[in-house]
Amino acid sequence: MIVRIMGxxxxxxxxxxxxxxxxxxxxxxxxxxxxEEEAFRVRLHALLDKVRHVGxxxxxxxxxxxxxxxxxxxxxxxEVREMLGNEGLIPG
Amino acid sequence: xxxxxxxxxxxxxxxxxxxxxxxxxxxxxDYSYQRQLELLQKVRRGVADVATSRKRVELxxxxxxxxxxxxxxxxxxxxxxxxxxxxxxxxxxxxxxxxQIADLRVQHDNxxxxxxxxxxxxxxxxxxxxxxxTKKETIKATYTAAEAQTRINExxxxxxxxxxxxxxxxxxxxxxxxxxxxxxxAIDELLASGALDDFSGQRGDDIQAELDRMGxxxxxxxxxxxxKAELGQGSAPQGAITPGPAQPQQxxxxxxxxxxxxxxxxxxxxPGEGL
Lengths: 92, 275
Prior knowledge:
The complex is a heterodimer of chains A (about 90) and B (about 280).
Chain A: E1 2-5, E2 9-12, H1 18-34, H2 37-54, E3 56-57, E4 68-70, H3 77-85
Parallel strand pairs in A: 1-4
Antiparallel strand pairs in A: 1-2, 2-3
Chain B: H1 2-20, H2 25-80, H3 84-142, H4 145-193, H5 195-231, H6 246-250, H7 264-268
Helix pairs in contact in B: 1-4, 2-3, 2-4, 2-5, 3-4, 3-5
C-alpha cells in the first residue's frame, strides 16, 4: 500500500504494518478533535516516524497514486484542519 | 484511518474533477503536461526566492556581527582607560545585538531547511514530469481512445497528487518566506537609516567619541605639562595654548560633529560631559 507524506514523497508499506499505523492515526485524529496542539504534534511525528521506519520509498519517477496521504511534519494543527475541511486549499 | 484516508480522498476528488472537465484524452494529457511544466517553473522560482532571502539574512548577520565586534573593541578600550561605566554600556549594547543575531540565525536555518525541501521537491517533480511525458507519448501512439482513457487516468492521478503536494509546499514556503522577508526588510531599513546604529552603533559612536575625547584630553594635558616645563613657567597663560600639532597626529578621528569649533580645547578636557 502506498502512503504519501506530504512534502517528502511516497512510501510503500506492507499490509502487516497497517494496523499499527491505523492506531496512531486514530490517536492523531483524537488530538485534532480535542484541539490539543501539543498532543497533535507528538502523535503526528510518531505516525510519520513509523511510516518512514517501516516503509520503503518509491522511486521519484513513479506515477502511482497514494492510498493514504499524511500531512507534512511541520504542519500545524490548524493547517491540517483546513486541509481536511476545505478542499479549496489544496491546489492542483 | 481517518486523517490519512480523508486527505487522500480529497486529493483524489481534486484529480477526478480535473479529469472530468476534459473530453478528449489527448487534450487531458497535453493540458496536464503543460501545467506540470508551469508548476516546475514555479518551484524553481520558489527555490531561488528562498535562496535570495537566505543570503539577505546572512548579509544582515554579518553586518550586525561587525557592529557587535566594534562594541566589544570599544568596551576593551574603555576599560583600558579606566572607564568601566563606558565599558559596561558598550557591552550591554553588544548584548542586545547578540539577541538579534541569534534570532536571525534561527531565521537563516529555517530558510535553509525550506530551500532544501523545495529543491528535493523540484527534483522529484522533475522526475515525475519526465516519466509522465514518456507515458503520454506511449499512450498517444499505441492505444485506442477507450484504453487510453484508463491509462491516462492512472498516470494523471499519480502526477496530479504530486502536483497538489508540491503546489501546497510552494504555497507554504511562500507564506513563510514572505513573513521572514518582511522582518528582513525592516532590519535592512534600520541598518540603512542608521536607526540600528542609534541603538547599537551610533550610540556606540558616542562611546567612541568619549573615548577619543579622553585620549585627546590626556594628550593635551601632557602637551601642556611639557610646554610648561620647557618654558619654566609656573602657570600657563590662558587661551594661548594651541593643541594643534599634538592633536591631528595622535587623534586622527576626533569627534567633529559634537564639538563646536570655537572652544575645542576646552571641550576636549571634559570627558563625559556635554552629551
